[in-house]
Amino acid sequence: MLIPGRTESCPVREYATITRMASPHDRLRDLGLELPSPPAALAAYVPTRTVPVGDGRALVFIAGQVPMREGKPLYSGAVPEPVSLEQAQECARLCALNLLAQLEAAAGLERVEQIAQLTGYVLSQEGFGQQPQVINAASELLAEVLGEAGKHSRAAVGVNALPASVPVEIAAIAVVRPRS
After folding, report:
1. Is the dihedral of CA 92, 98, 103, 109 positive or negative?
2. N or C terminus: fewer CB in 10 A for the chain?
3. Gyration radius from the chain CA atoms
């Protein structure tokens, strides 16, 4: 079989590898990231709720994810003191990984048609106005892992309290395709 632009022949398997789009799991691996186990609910709610919307598609509502690693907050406190902008961005990336873990458990990353909405909350000291820069870290990670499907509308909101005094909490709504 010939590949356009190449003169020599190559096996079908090589052709399939060259032309195949990277899966979200491949992209995670390429980024050196691993999905954590989906975090359990910390109170009286469910981590995800899947709502059918027709044509086999569904909306997956993902409860606010906080930057927990092994059951403990990555950082605690307000931004920019005691938590720096860079540390808050690290928290936002961990929240995005937790969102992806919840999506994988609820529907499978391969079925994500789009992240429709992301809402990020940043525990902010008075006068801090860089909430969009904090939540950008999550938005960029979702786009890196899911490609075009990871691009979304968004709100980045400063608040004066979050559970366990974590600096960031992020919730999302995704559209998923039917199982094939």
Report:
1. positive
2. C
3. 19
CATH 3.40.50.300 fits 23-176, yes or no: no
Task: Express each pLDDT in 153-162 by its tens digit.
Answer: 999 999 999 9
3-state secondary structure the chain: CECCCCCCECCHHHHHHHHCCCCHHHHHHHCCCCCCCCCCCCCCCCCEEEEEEECCEEEEEEEEECCEECCEECCCCCECCCCCHHHHHHHHHHHHHHHHHHHHHHCCHHHEEEEEEEEEEEEECCCCCCHHHHHHHHHHHHHHHHHHHHCCEEEEEEECCCHHHCCEEEEEEEEECCCC
- What the block records as the tokens of 109 is 């990353």
Q: What is the pTM of this model?
A: 0.87
Q: Which residues of the chain have pLDDT under 70?
A: 1-20, 180
Pairwise CA distance, residues 95 & 97, whole Å: 5
